[in-house]
Specification:
5-stranded antiparallel sheet, mainly beta, 11% helix
Length: 499
């Protein structure tokens, strides 16, 4: 039993301070475009335990323009305009609804000070952390200031509140000293990394010998998106091309556990981790089959998220809008060419190809529906399997209720005919669903995938040009981000990970 706890606050070893170069201009800080695009923290060697539950990344977020380094420092005229010719940059620019500052982190790498061996390497960090947040909080949670708000996530209310993240807490920046805490929005987040969610970590020379934690930052185009897919010709102040983020005053904060000699001698050097492996593939046809060989001993679940081929690093669409494959008809998943754990394909019925009468000459159902969620969200069996895979259970709190999903579908099918004074194609109601397979069965079971193949077969309307799916997407392929959830064991004395 630890004798006591001691709080710590660590600055990056590659600190790059923000410098206020004018009344409303700043340079420096951590960013992908300017300054340092990696953040490195060094946790020193000591005969203490790192209390992983207490560990948090804190700091402030500034939004500025890269061409002149100016940041928004006032409430601003027309900030209440949701559209129209006077739509402003600080209203048009938005971070993803879910995840907040998590989206500024692309990859997390953890190393021991004993060697350069990577103990953890987490890719697609922002995407996964954001979607997990959206599946564990509902719309009300984003109102009452719980955990998501601490990382500046706005949830389903981003349509009204996201613009406030661009502003500083004080409107008289010219008289504030350099480094003032009033310049930038404060945030605090807990990192979603397996090694930092396990047992307390021994930092002594016989074990980890201290830690190096490196955060690789995301490009600005992977963090921001326009309020609308298209901007009108007369909306001259709505462009977000030069908008960038800067992180300042970053700290890694937490607590050390001060152990007794008996605690140190009894420390278990084998840490069981709930890990994940990221794999990327794509879908180019309406009848697609994808196969992976994870080479892992204890796979708990596999979840797949789908994005359009041109969605990555694209300011005109939201990065974390993970929509179901266009017009999906059915999906089946298997192991070594055998359907498992379900012995049948999951069919989406009715679907976008269903017709009011039999035969190919029948009228498509989709063209006669006022509420498109009645058909496009008719995937209950698929969704329940996905929830069990992603969360380990069916969700108790989630933003993806039918009313929200219907609004998302209406945005997808909205008219994109150019309008000189108004943006078209609303971007602030993203989908968060995917396709998953659960091997835990509520009992934390695992399945071996050493020299075994996982297969995903999907029938859809991807890249068909079908008029039954949104015209802006019906000729596009899809990118698939697959996350393989598995158990691994980390030996903190030998620095070996067994998967």
């Amino acid at each position: 039993m630890p004798v006591s706890k001691k709080a710590f606050s660590i600055s990056p070893i590659n600190e790059n301070r923000v410098r206020q170069t004018g009344a409303n201009t700043v340079e420096g800080g951590f960013s992908f475009k300017q300054g340092a695009n990696t953040v490195r923290f060094s946790i020193p060697t000591s005969d203490r335990l790192l209390d992983v539950k207490s560990l948090r990344l804190t700091g402030q977020l500034i939004l500025k323009t890269s061409n002149d380094n100016t940041y928004n420092n006032t409430r601003g005229a027309n900030i209440d305009d949701d559209n129209g010719a006077n739509l402003q940059k600080y209203t048009s620019v938005n971070m993803p609804n879910f995840g907040g500052v998590h989206n500024c982190i692309d990859k997390v790498v953890i190393q021991s000070k004993k060697s350069n061996v990577e103990l953890a390497n987490i890719n697609q960090y922002g995407l996964y952390a954001s979607l997990k947040e959206a599946w564990t909080n509902n719309a009300s949670d984003y109102v009452w200031g719980v955990i998501p708000n601490q990382n500046l996530a706005q949830g389903t209310h981003a349509t009204s509140t996201n613009r406030l993240m661009n502003l500083s807490a004080n409107t008289t920046q010219a008289v504030l000293p350099v480094g003032s805490k009033h310049v930038g929005q404060h945030f605090s987040l807990k990192m979603d990394v397996d090694m930092l969610k396990s047992q307390n970590l021994h930092l002594g020379a016989s074990q980890l010998n201290g830690l190096l934690i490196t955060l690789h930052l995301s490009p600005d185009s992977a963090v921001f998106n326009q309020r609308f897919k298209t901007i009108g010709a007369n909306q001259t102040d709505a462009s977000i091309v030069n908008v960038m983020y800067v992180l300042k005053n970053l700290k890694l904060e937490g607590k050390y556990l001060i152990p007794s000699p008996q605690d140190l001698s009894a420390y278990q050097s084998k840490a069981l981790l709930n890990s994940r492996l990221n794999l990327v593939n794509d879908i180019h046809s309406d009848n697609s089959s994808k196969t992976y060989t994870p080479q892992l001993n204890n796979v708990k679940a596999i979840v797949n998220f789908f994005q359009d081929e041109d969605q990555t690093n694209n300011l005109t669409v939201q990065q974390n809008n993970c929509r179901m494959p266009q017009g999906m008809k059915e999906q089946e998943q298997g192991k070594d060419n055998v359907r498992t754990p379900l012995s049948y394909p999951i069919k989406i019925q009715p679907n976008s190809s269903s017709r009011l009468s039999s035969g190919s000459g029948g009228v498509p159902v989709i063209s006669n529906l006022r509420d498109k969620s009645n058909i496009l969200d008719n995937d209950v069996e698929n969704r329940k399997q996905f929830e069990r895979a992603f969360l380990g259970r069916e969700t108790k709190r989630c933003v993806a209720v039918l009313g929200y999903l219907n609004e998302h579908q209406e945005d997808e099918y909205a008219d994109l005919t150019p309008d000189a004074n108004n943006g078209k194609g609303f971007n602030l109601r993203p989908d968060i669903r995917g396709v998953g397979v659960d091997y835990k069965f509520g009992l934390n079971n695992t399945v071996p995938f050493n020299n075994s193949d996982y297969s995903l077969n999907i029938k859809s309307l991807i890249n068909t040009g079908s008029a039954n799916v949104p015209t802006v997407r019906n000729t596009k392929s899809s990118t698939v981000n697959s996350f393989v959830e598995h158990l691994s064991v980390l030996s903190t004395d030998t620095l070996q990970r067994t998967m």
